[in-house]
Amino acid sequence: MQLNLYLVVQNMDRAVDFYQGLFQKPPLMRSESYTTFDLNGALWGLFNAQHYPVPVQQGGQVVPNLLVSDIDAEHTRVAALNPAFITDIRANGPYRLFVISDPEGTPIELYAHAGA
Question: What's the DSSP call for residue 80?
């Protein structure tokens, strides 16, 4: 079994531009209804809900998180992408983390082990 996910988006071009900057790589596959990025074998998908046969609520149901090796460097790099929302780095138990939101309003957490 392998975990993959997709986020519902309204504007595929805007979402792809954002995630290309965040992941620093082009999509593995792209169409007007579905785009995927390969993150070390897991697929991070973007799905245009207008192509789904039933109504889909957008944003806020899940908080994807990304483990990074250097939280300070990532905060500086991601802040330069001008996300819609970004927090300062915070300590949370054995982790340091910050939260951004993508152009569709989905929160995304980036975190590292506190000793990293």
Answer: T
Contacts made by residues 38-42, CB under 8 angstroms, sequence distance 24+: 39/66, 41/2, 42/2, 42/3, 42/4, 42/5
For residue 115, the model assigns a pLDDT of 76
- For residue 44, the surrounding DSSP H or E stretch is strand 42-48
Task: Summarize pLDDT for 48-64 with one digit per residue, the tens.
Answer: 877 776 677 766 667 78
Task: Show the tokens assigned to 82.
Answer: 């001008």
How far lies 104's CA from each of 44, 85, 90, 107, in Å? 15, 11, 24, 9
Alpha carbon 91 to its chain's center: 20
